[in-house]
Amino acid sequence: DLLDISKIEAGKMRLNLTVVDLGEVVQHVIDTLGTWAKTKDIKLEKILYPDKIEILMDTDRMVQVLTNLIGNGIKFTNKGGSISVEVKERPPDELFPEVAVQVTVQDTGIGIDYEDIKRIFDKFEQVKGVNSSGIGGTGLGLPIAKEIIQMHGGKIWVESSKGCGSKFTFLLPMQ
Ligand code: ADP
C-alpha cells in the first residue's frame, strides 16, 4: 500500500489496459475472499445484470479495488451478516454524463459515522475506535481505490450511517 501511495504521489502509477468482463473479475474476488467470509458466517452474494459487461480496465488494479471494498465489508461486518456486490449498466445523468457500469458493494456491518464519511478516502484515515477494538489496517486502501477508479475515468463514493451498514459505489465509463 505504501509503495502504491508513493507511486501515485510521484505520478508514476500506470494502468495496463485490456478489455475484460467485469463480472468475471468480481467473481474472482468473491471466490478469493469467500473462505474468510465463511469463517464469519457472512453471506457474500453477487448480482449481475446483464451477465457480460466488458470494460477497458487494468485487471490487477480492479482486483485490488474490489478486494479492498469487499474485504472491508467482511472486516467491518459482524458474524452472520451479509455483503452484496451488484454490477449493472447505468445510463448517463447529471452525476456521470456517460454510459457507465455501476458497481455497488453493500454490507450489513457497523457503518461509518457521518463526520468520518468525508475523511475515509483521505490518506491514513482510520476511523478512531475501530482499530482500538482490534481491527487492523493501514487506512490506505480507500485512497488507493479512489485513485485507481479516477485513473479509469470513474467516480467512487460511500453512503453509510453508524449501525446501519455501508454502501460503496463506483462508476466506470463503458466507452
Ligand atoms: P483500512 O481498512 O486498511 O484501515 P481503508 O482505507 O480501506 O483502510 O479504510 C479506512 C477506514 O474506513 C477503515 O479503517 C474503517 O474505519 C472505515 N471503513 C472502510 N470500509 C468500511 C465498511 N465497509 N464499514 C465500516 N467502516 C469502513
Summarize the structure.
The protein is of the alpha+beta class and 175 residues long. Helix content is 33%, strand content 26%.
Uncertain runs: none
Helix content: 25-40%
Radius of gyration, whole Å: 16 Å
Shape: globular
Largest sheet: 5 strands, mixed
Strand element count: 7
Q: Report, as a whole number of angstroms, the end-to-end distance.
A: 29 Å
How are the strands of the largest sheet arranged?
Answer: 2-4-5-7-6
Structural class: alpha+beta
User: Ligands bound here?
Assistant: adenosine-5'-diphosphate
Number of helices: 5
How much of the sequence lies in strands comes to: 25-35%
What do the pLDDT scores average to? Answer: 90
**Order of SSEs:** HEHEEHEEHHEE
How are the SSEs ordered, and which strands pair?
Elements: H1 2-9, E1 18-21, H2 22-39, E2 43-49, E3 54-57, H3 59-75, E4 82-90, E5 100-107, H4 114-117, H5 141-151, E6 155-160, E7 166-173
Structural commentary:
By secondary structure, the chain is an alpha+beta fold. It is 33% helix and 26% strand. The protein has helices spanning 2-9, 22-39, 59-75, 114-117, 141-151, and strands spanning 18-21, 43-49, 54-57, 82-90, 100-107, 155-160, 166-173. α3 packs antiparallel against α5. The longest helix is centred in the N-terminal third of the chain and has 18 residues, at 22-39. The mean pLDDT is 90. Adenosine-5'-diphosphate is lined by residues 68, 72-73, 76, 107, 109-112, 120, 125-127, 130, 137-142, 166.
